[in-house]
Design brief:
Blueprint lengths: L1 H9 L4 E4 L4 H14 L4 E5 L11 H4 L3 E3 L16
Parallel strand pairs: 1-2, 2-3
Length: 82
């Protein structure tokens, strides 16, 4: 990971998009990028309820989540009568 971080720094990368099938991998990589590359914006593809857990707040602060599924509690309840 250190070699990748150095390469991104050398190329003056401004944003990193993380795509992974396991949400835990996305959280881990977001944490590593934010730790090693302070000025790089992090984007993750795919929403998950784990992003809302307090223990991941530091790792995910400022991360942009791109998904077709909204990560809002209000959207979890559908009213059949509406």
């Amino acid at each position: 990971l250190e070699d990748i971080a150095q390469t991104l720094l050398a190329h003056r990368t401004r944003a990193v998009v993380i795509v992974a099938s396991d949400v835990r991998d996305r959280i881990f990589l977001a944490h590593e990028v934010r730790t090693r590359l302070r000025d790089v914006k992090v984007v993750v593809v795919g929403s998950h309820s784990l992003y809302l857990r307090p223990e991941f707040n530091e790792a995910l602060r400022g991360v942009l989540v791109v998904s077709t599924y909204p990560l809002l509690l209000e959207t979890q309840f559908w009213d059949a009568g509406a």
